Amino acid sequence: MVLAPPTDPNHPNDHALIEHNDDPTHPAFLIPELCRGFYTLGWVTGTGGGISIRKDEHVYLAPSGVQKEKIQPQDIFVLTLKERDFLRWPVHKPLKQSACTPLFYNAYDMRGAGACIHTHSQHAVMATLLWPGSEFRISHQEMIKGMRHGGMGSAMSYLDTLVIPIIENTPDEEDLREGLEEAMRKYPDAPAVLVRRHGTYSWGPDAERAKGQAECLDYLLEIGVKMKLAGMETVGLQQ
Amino acid sequence: MVLAPPTDPNHPNDHALIEHNDDPTHPAFLIPELCRGFYTLGWVTGTGGGISIRKDEHVYLAPSGVQKEKIQPQDIFVLTLKERDFLRWPVHKPLKQSACTPLFYNAYDMRGAGACIHTHSQHAVMATLLWPGSEFRISHQEMIKGMRHGGMGSAMSYLDTLVIPIIENTPDEEDLREGLEEAMRKYPDAPAVLVRRHGTYSWGPDAERAKGQAECLDYLLEIGVKMKLAGMETVGLQQ
Amino acid sequence: MVLAPPTDPNHPNDHALIEHNDDPTHPAFLIPELCRGFYTLGWVTGTGGGISIRKDEHVYLAPSGVQKEKIQPQDIFVLTLKERDFLRWPVHKPLKQSACTPLFYNAYDMRGAGACIHTHSQHAVMATLLWPGSEFRISHQEMIKGMRHGGMGSAMSYLDTLVIPIIENTPDEEDLREGLEEAMRKYPDAPAVLVRRHGTYSWGPDAERAKGQAECLDYLLEIGVKMKLAGMETVGLQQ
Amino acid sequence: MVLAPPTDPNHPNDHALIEHNDDPTHPAFLIPELCRGFYTLGWVTGTGGGISIRKDEHVYLAPSGVQKEKIQPQDIFVLTLKERDFLRWPVHKPLKQSACTPLFYNAYDMRGAGACIHTHSQHAVMATLLWPGSEFRISHQEMIKGMRHGGMGSAMSYLDTLVIPIIENTPDEEDLREGLEEAMRKYPDAPAVLVRRHGTYSWGPDAERAKGQAECLDYLLEIGVKMKLAGMETVGLQQ
Question: Domain Class II aldolase/adducin N-terminal: where (chains A, B, C, D) (predicted)?
Fold first, then answer.
């Protein structure tokens, strides 16, 4: 499970994967752009949170512990999907790949996701405190239609109840991998997992649809928290 | 009621309606610009919500299920007002016109509106939960003066009570058409309709005045929700 | 009290007061820039609110009923301070000077202000609902030091209690003039006046200091509302 | 303790420290950029709050009582770390160095900090009202991991309880120096100090890490206030 770029200075480091490219939809450009947007939404302040994008057999990762709203394409890591070999890593300054890397791979391996988003949204943290059990549930909200079954399948219906498992936080982010995997296995229909007192993991078939679902999820967590604080039930139609 | 662009590749598709134009007040430019602003306001996150603008006998529509803050002029559909014939549709990528199209036409047909806005504002959703009946009512707020009678007539007065009908949501957005039509018929003076657990529909004589009224409406929903949660009445002057 | 630009087409209209000028601190540039900032703060949505700046014997005014975040220098009116004669008015489209004009003149005539700001801030509206009497009072807040005695004098101290009179709203904005004048006379030390269910009027020696005080005022209204809703007193040190 | 730039017009004023420099990571550029970001976050509205950066033996300071979001490199003061001598000060307009200067030096002298941030965050003010004693405490939040022991040491753990001392406000900002010093001495592990009814002081090894910690602190104050208002304890795991 230990991931680290090769230390042998002669090991090939394929900078062309990032730098000889000016396609604005390329992961190396999308990750910085999306992180700037997530910062504005309050999802990745204080260097927290992040996003990973898969393009075919390559996985693109942001660095760990940096200002997410300031990431540049040259800061991005590229790994292979299967062997998790490093194909490209930053050398212009000392950077480590995101501590969430094993968690992002869960979405790639278990769901075949094309992108995975991790936020420290306060709505998520409040939801995990107001729903002390192992699930956040909400129904009868138009925005549920923006979520996909399992994050990857067909769109959910207004008549579906959205069920998001909640796992307990661990001191080390890497140690969340097992709990996350278990929750994803137990809830194959869930498009996201909440980590108590921490935030969200969600994914989608590609970066655009992962972002769209992350926005819908955050909206539903926010409205759920508001409803709960106003004394309303979030499942069913009766108030 | 089924609307779809012609599938015959020889059918004329008048791209000039969009592309040979650099007037910043043209609907093809206004729709993207307004959607970016609405995204910042939290009205159209997660691909939800939207806007349609009418210019004379042409109706301009945003595509369905896309990131609203990223729409480009070339993504816009153009239909005729009367026959709902497609005059122009995007071919650079597969796009479907907004699922709200029949709802937007309600505002054009029943009110002669020049633009119609649909939001997923959380203030609207909370208002429809805190006002469980069929109307949201508020009076004695300066911002009521920013609303027009029926959305199209003269400005409302500080002494008017704003009454916005609330209709129930349906699993399919198209199925809201009938309920929306009934509410607009029953409340000819109302400048908007709320959809429970979903959002707002509002309109105006043109895009600028539709936007101004949508902002006033959202302000009034927000302040109404705050007042209700603080235990105040929103109609009348006594607290 | 009726103010309107001359209708005689031969009456001189001194466009040079606005257009032959590229000083970014000139009122014709400051008003649009400040209005864009106020829009972001939620103070002037839905065409509400505004700002007027005085430069020596000239008073600069934004137009009425327009999107405040879209104002351009050429939309600005210029009047004389004493006679309220129109020196410059827009002719490129039909625009009317702000309905707040007589209220802005109160600040110029009674306080010798250099700028006057009117907002529809929701914090102000909530404060006037939670303080049903004729005064909003708050003490022991660092931000009080950002307010000036009477809006124009020396800075207030952390030990001062900020007292802002509240007047009742009227159906027509012009009719607020008398109540505003009375409140400003009765509270010579107050740097602002609140209008119930409407918003704020505040002023300062120049645009920069008027803006700074408007920000401090809004901060204090917001924190006052939060304290009141949490069951705290806003005057004195005991909770 | 009285600090003021030399009044002798022949005293050397080393403008080159600011002006012959286009490195975007230089303090003279970072201070304006960071202040713009802090303004958007609501930390420095109404000319309040600020930031100081140390680069080796030079201390860079923003001016006092100006719009923080408008600061330009040429407005910056430069002092020596040890003697607090002025090496560079603005002459293009009358400006005074930040009233927080002695407080910023506390972080340099007592912690060896590389940057110090002062905010008027409303979350901080609310926290000091809801925690009427001399400490704000929170545990079991992922964002605690973004704070460093004493602001300068190793990262805190998810299992650590964050303890931030709260000192009482004083009418003059300079008079906070002693209380701040005492709190920093008594709480060597604390990465920040709160000032009741006023705001935050926090610091870090450099500007980037001071900003990251200030964001984590503000997040934790915000979530702490939300938890307290919802009737939850912020320390321990039971709700």
Answer: 29-225
